[in-house]
């Protein structure tokens, strides 16, 4: 069981290692957009949309890793002062009854839109934009799957190893 959890953790770590470079690239491209527009009077909608694509990719593919390193948003009204055993119960409940079902629902309800987008190779958001909205929409199921895999890993670790 520990090996399964480690494999799932490794998958999200690899995705995050690759994805984190988008943050730097996004800043550089945005700097180039501002420089191009205000210094040289040059503008490109496709380049502007690329920042949107990088931002979406960074957050959607980084969500599983965020769960792995326990940096996600937590409403800790009870959690902060709870005993380790209670924290474990709260975490298990959250993963099994809240996170996994919500990700499954999002995956289920978004899939027709993603499928149709691929079917027609959906074009740009704006005229002159990037002709790959189908790739942008594909981030939704990727997000769901990566978060669900990491949630499964966390469930395994909570059951096998106990509280942190």
From TrEMBL:
<keyword id="KW-1133">Transmembrane helix</keyword>
<protein>
    <recommendedName>
        <fullName>TRAP transporter small permease protein</fullName>
    </recommendedName>
</protein>
<keyword id="KW-1003">Cell membrane</keyword>
<feature type="transmembrane region" description="Helical">
    <location>
        <begin position="129"/>
        <end position="149"/>
    </location>
</feature>
<comment type="similarity">
    <text>Belongs to the TRAP transporter small permease family.</text>
</comment>
<feature type="transmembrane region" description="Helical">
    <location>
        <begin position="52"/>
        <end position="69"/>
    </location>
</feature>
<dbReference type="GO" id="GO:0022857">
    <property type="term" value="F:transmembrane transporter activity"/>
</dbReference>
<comment type="subunit">
    <text>The complex comprises the extracytoplasmic solute receptor protein and the two transmembrane proteins.</text>
</comment>
<dbReference type="GO" id="GO:0005886">
    <property type="term" value="C:plasma membrane"/>
</dbReference>
<comment type="function">
    <text>Part of the tripartite ATP-independent periplasmic (TRAP) transport system.</text>
</comment>
<keyword id="KW-0813">Transport</keyword>
<feature type="transmembrane region" description="Helical">
    <location>
        <begin position="90"/>
        <end position="109"/>
    </location>
</feature>
<dbReference type="InterPro" id="IPR055348">
    <property type="entry name" value="DctQ"/>
</dbReference>
<keyword id="KW-0472">Membrane</keyword>
<feature type="domain" description="Tripartite ATP-independent periplasmic transporters DctQ component">
    <location>
        <begin position="26"/>
        <end position="159"/>
    </location>
</feature>
<feature type="transmembrane region" description="Helical">
    <location>
        <begin position="21"/>
        <end position="40"/>
    </location>
</feature>
<keyword id="KW-0997">Cell inner membrane</keyword>
<dbReference type="Pfam" id="PF04290">
    <property type="entry name" value="DctQ"/>
</dbReference>
<keyword id="KW-0812">Transmembrane</keyword>
<dbReference type="InterPro" id="IPR007387">
    <property type="entry name" value="TRAP_DctQ"/>
</dbReference>
């Amino acid at each position: 069981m520990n090996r399964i959890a480690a494999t799932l953790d490794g998958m999200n770590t690899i995705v995050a290692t690759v994805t984190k470079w988008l943050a730097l690239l996004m800043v550089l491209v945005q700097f180039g957009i501002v420089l191009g527009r205000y210094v040289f009077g040059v503008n490109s909608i496709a380049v502007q949309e690329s920042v949107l694509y990088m931002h979406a990719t960074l957050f959607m593919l980084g969500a599983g890793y965020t769960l792995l390193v326990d940096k996600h948003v937590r409403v800790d009204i009870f959690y902060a002062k709870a005993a380790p055993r209670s924290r474990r119960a709260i975490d298990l409940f959250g993963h099994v009854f809240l996170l996994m079902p919500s990700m499954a629902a999002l995956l289920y309800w978004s899939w027709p839109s993603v499928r149709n987008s691929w079917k027609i190779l959906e074009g740009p958001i704006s005229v002159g934009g990037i002709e790959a909205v189908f790739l942008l929409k594909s981030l939704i199921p990727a997000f769901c799957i990566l978060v669900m895999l990491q949630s499964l890993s966390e469930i395994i670790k909570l059951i096998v190893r106990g509280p942190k």
